[in-house]
Design a protein that fits this description.
The first copy, chain A, is α/β, with parallel strands linked by helices and 246 residues long. Chain A has a six-stranded parallel sheet with strand order 3-2-1-4-5-6, sandwiched between helices. In chain A, helix 1 packs across helix 2, helix 2 packs across helix 3 and helix 5 packs parallel to helix 9. In chain A, 44% of the residues are buried.
Chain lengths: 246, 246
């Protein structure tokens, strides 16, 4: 890890992974699932919402994305991937009484994810010096609606959608820097996930790892990151702002 | 013109033309030109800055864009078009003492254009109900830097650059609606220019004409728009917000 500001003097933009790094997707999906169950009058034990959320994320997003990366499936919006998996989960859990409007609305829970408590105040501080933008596999509409809902003060919305690929494809990081009129070394990727940061690093971007121990549940779990890996390691966006001298 | 809110109940996003509609490009370029002349120690009559600004805009942007639209030139970023024209103007005016750093910096005056006085307060009001975004031929970096500089509270940054075309190509309007996850009729284009609005209308978007009589100088000049043309006609973004019941 470098000392404060050294090595990142030329950085002009910070790009943020979103799911897990900026927003707490798991708690948000669980909460809305529980509210939906109540509205529908389902018995409390009909759905295990933490497990539902984890499966939706793992199979509807992570695994679907890998199939696209391997060329086994064409690129489609994350909204579509989420919906395909939601329809399967509805089948599996016997929730077929959900009508089209309710399915569409529940699928948009991913547009309404709640930020971690430090996300908005941290971003406001970081925005004073840097151009701040998401760089997510989430599509533009999802990221735009999420920002409006959660008050995320982005300077612009960059999505892998704009480049027709998904992270960790190098094209996503390189084209994001280019569209901002910047060299890769003028950009720093901020993420809670090692793979995203390692791919950024291979493209010449700077990197900041932010620990999000509760992304996957109330039992703290951290990525396997060594102490000197990446330009910065922080416990929150506010901690990162302090380390950057803001 | 429709009465308040009728016919636009389904509108979810407002897309804004930028040069002339949101920002006063002419005064901004003149002012920075005069400051540059002073720094360089040029005699006060060496450059007619209003004329310089007009030529830069007309030949470096409007005409260059038409060549791209006619297929006579490949699509390139507006930053590049502006720079090509700036280099020609530098030749014509005998300003070759400007070094590369000064040329690059002056070319970025288009990233630092000043908003009209009602732009920021009007956008803040309109943002309460609508997704607000630029839809400009200016490139993403230009629009992002401009927003940061001028405090434009966009929800996202949409540029013709994302679609590899320039307005008034229908693809730009249709793809902008699509990337927001909206139908054309859920989007309203806001512009000070008839051609932009007519092209939007042909794509099924709603339209709001905002009068900017001083875009081209201190002598007021308006577009040739008939009284009932477009869904709304307004004197400012704040006037538009009022007409929309905000």
């Amino acid at each position: 890890m470098r000392t404060i500001m050294s090595g990142v003097d030329g950085v002009k933009a910070l790009l943020f992974d979103v799911f897990g790094t900026v927003v707490d997707w798991r708690s948000s999906v669980i909460r809305e699932g529980q509210q939906l169950a109540q509205r529908q009058g389902w018995p409390a034990d009909k759905v295990d919402w933490p497990q539902f959320a984890d499966t939706w994320r793992r199979e509807g997003y992570t695994q679907a994305m890998r199939r696209v990366a391997r060329g086994e499936a064409p690129w489609v919006r994350v909204d579509v991937l989420h919906r395909q998996m939601l329809d399967r989960l509805i089948e599996q859990h016997g929730l077929q009484d959900l009508d089209e409007a309710a399915r569409d609305s529940f699928n948009r829970v991913w547009h309404r994810l709640q930020p971690w408590p430090d996300s908005v105040p941290g971003l406001i501080r970081l925005k004073r010096r840097y151009v701040i933008s998401p760089l997510s596999n989430g599509n533009v509409a999802l990221l735009t609606n999420m920002a409006k809902h959660a008050g995320l003060p982005w300077d612009c919305i960059l999505s892998a959608e704009l480049f027709g690929a998904f992270k960790p494809d190098p094209a996503v990081y390189l084209k994001a820097a280019d569209i901002l009129g910047l060299q890769p070394q003028e950009v720093m990727m901020v993420a809670a996930h090692r793979g995203d940061l390692e791919a950024s690093e291979r493209c010449g971007l700077h990197t900041a790892y932010v620990r999000r121990p509760f992304e996957h549940g109330t039992e703290p779990r951290l990525e396997d990151v060594s102490p000197n890996q990446f330009d910065f390691q922080a416990d929150s966006f506010e901690d990162l702002a302090i380390q950057l001298g803001l």
